[in-house]
Amino acid sequence: MTTPVLEARDVTMRFGGLTAVRSVDFTVNAGEIVGLIGPNGAGKTTFFNCLTGLYVPTEGTVSYKGTVLPPKPHLVTQAGIARTFQNIRLFANMTVLENVLVGRHTRTKEGLWSALLRGPGFKKAERASEERAMELLEFIGLAHKRDHLARNLPYGEQRKLEIARALASEPGLLLLDEPTAGMNPQETRATEELVFAIRDKGIAVLLIEHDMRFVFNLCDRVAVLVQGEKLVEGTSEVVQADERVIAAYLGEPFEGDPGEAEAAEVEAAEAAAEATSTTSSTKGEAK
Ligand SMILES: Nc1ncnc2c1ncn2[C@@H]1O[C@H](COP(=O)(O)OP(=O)(O)OP(=O)(O)O)[C@@H](O)[C@H]1O
Ligand SMILES: [Mg+2]
């Protein structure tokens, strides 16, 4: 039995004359890692914004664990959906630890300002909150940088910190918008492991990514958005083999796809092997 965590029904988002998302039905089940892919401008981020209350969809509803969500970001977070942003949004002049503590404010009785100003009510909850924040920083591999300012972290670590901050709201569903953008191949591999570890903690994951190897390695299911519409949805194998998907991407090389360089290498190697075998067979004939 699969239990839906997220259910988007007939979600449409129009900006004036532009329909960025068109009648999208979408489900994420408990225990799943689901990928959302599509060319630039397909409406992926807009769809995330509709799911998280940043945009009020023109039509349609979004439910979390069977309850329709009000389109207000803090209520969506409170319900149990956390996210990261395509363009990193951290408090640049706060420390790594403080950024995670801010992420916890929806789960503590003390409000954001109390947390920031360290008022009397905050003192009591402070230790427990800090313990949890440190646990998350250890999980993400940034505990040793707890007192560094967020703006001084390398890009890849800023992305990780955003994930830690999102996890601090104790979500049941985590949305990641291009988690490996700007990462080197090692960081990307590590992020892959991290996403598996998050899923193993019982948090469902929905991610947008242009790195196809990352997506197809990780995801139980992948949906393809093209011009605001869900074109195909299925397992990695099904989606990779779908000609409509290949056509949708033609002329749009995947950003930062390590597969592309490798494909060129393989092609070159094949060409070289062919040249060698032609030479040897010519020699063979000559004998
Ligand atoms: N607030 C907005 N007002 C008007 N148009 C918008 C707004 N947000 C997004 N759009 C438009 O909606 C379309 C979808 O954009 P969106 O950012 O969702 O694409 P995307 O699939 O995330 O692309 P990318 O892979 O480049 O991040 C684009 O044409 C974009 O210009
Ligand atoms: Mg986007």
- What is the count of β-strands? 10
Which distinct ligands sit in these coordinates? adenosine-5'-triphosphate, magnesium ion
Proportion of residues in extended strands? 15-25%
Describe the strand arrangement of the main beta sheet, using strand numbers.
Answer: 6-7-8-3-9-10
Helix content: 40-55%
What is the element string, with H for helices and E for strands?
EEEHEEHEHHHHEHEHEEHHH
Structural class based on helices, strands and sheet pairing: alpha/beta
What distance lies between the first and last C-alpha atoms, to the nearest angstrom? Answer: 68 Å
Number of helices: 11
Shape: globular
The averaged pLDDT comes out at 87
Write the layout of secondary structure elements.
Elements: E1 4-15, E2 18-29, E3 33-37, H1 44-51, E4 59-64, E5 67-68, H2 73-79, E6 81-83, H3 96-103, H4 112-117, H5 120-140, H6 155-167, E7 173-177, H7 185-200, E8 204-208, H8 212-218, E9 221-226, E10 229-234, H9 236-241, H10 243-249, H11 258-286
Helix pairs in contact: 3-6, 5-6
Protein name: ABC transporter ATP-binding protein
Pfam families: ABC_tran (PF00005), BCA_ABC_TP_C (PF12399)
Biased composition (Polar residues): 276-287
